[in-house]
Amino acid sequence: MRRSILATIPAIALAGVVLLGFAGFAQNSDFNLNMHANSHATAKDIGLPVYPGATLFKDKDRDSSSADVGLVLNSFHFNVQAVSFVTTDAPKRVLEFYRRPLAKYGEVLECDHGKPAGAFTVTSSGLTCGENPSGGIELRAGRPEQFRIVGIDGTDAGKTKFGLVALVLPRSEARK
């Protein structure tokens, strides 16, 4: 789950470099460009609590367990904040813990390997399960253009890895 989202970071950076070339051209217009990328997102930034007793998950191939990447180009807005944790508790307990905090963003949709697994297939705001190439179970809440995800990976015996993600997508992308 986290890898698929974070895999877009190099593409965003490249797009930003290209767009910066247009910034000089558009100095006297209503052109608005703002980009940021760092590895300092927290659960608080995402708007969710840290699961009790969980610790930051450090992948041996990565320097950080979190990311915050954003791009604003006029009315185009994209932002992803993600942080990964690990606990010795069962995946089911982690899922149950996050249902209530996610509910403040709207109906909570449960997705299993990208397919709806709960009481409904789409929220009243139009949020659906999305592709989840890494598999696992997700809880989603919010609107199609701005939502939170809790993704659970319980494939390692004795530990549950989970990621907290906040996404802001361009309106046209949110409808896809």
Q: Could you characterize what this model shows?
A:
- The structure is a single chain.
- With 176 residues, the protein is α+β, with helices and mostly antiparallel strands.
- The chain has one domain (2-174).
- Helix content is 24%, strand content 33%.
- It has 5 helices and 9 strands, in the order H-H-E-H-E-E-E-H-E-E-E-E-E-H.
- Strands 1, 2, 3, 4, 5, 6, 7, 8 and 9 form a 9-stranded antiparallel beta sheet that branches.
- A hairpin with a 2-residue loop joins strand 3 and strand 4 (76-87).
- The longest helix has 17 residues, at 9-25.
- Mean pLDDT is 80; it is low at 1-26.
Short key terms for the protein model shown above:
single chain; 176 residues; 9 strands; 24% helix; alpha+beta
Short description:
The chain is α+β, with helices and mostly antiparallel strands. A hairpin with a 2-residue loop joins strand 7 and strand 8 (146-153). It has helices at 2-6, 9-25, 43-46, 91-103, 171-174; strands spanning 33-38, 55-56, 66-73, 76-87, 109-112, 115-116, 137-143, 146-153, 160-168.
In oligomeric terms, what are we looking at?
Answer: single chain
Proportion of strand residues: 25-35%
User: Major sheet, described briefly?
Assistant: 9 strands, antiparallel
Number of domains: 1
Helical proportion?
10-25%
What is the typical, i.e. mean, pLDDT? 80
Low-confidence stretches: 1-26
Helix run count = 5
Instruction: Tell me how many strands there are.
Output: 9
- Sheet/helix structural class: alpha+beta
Order of helices and strands: HHEHEEEHEEEEEH
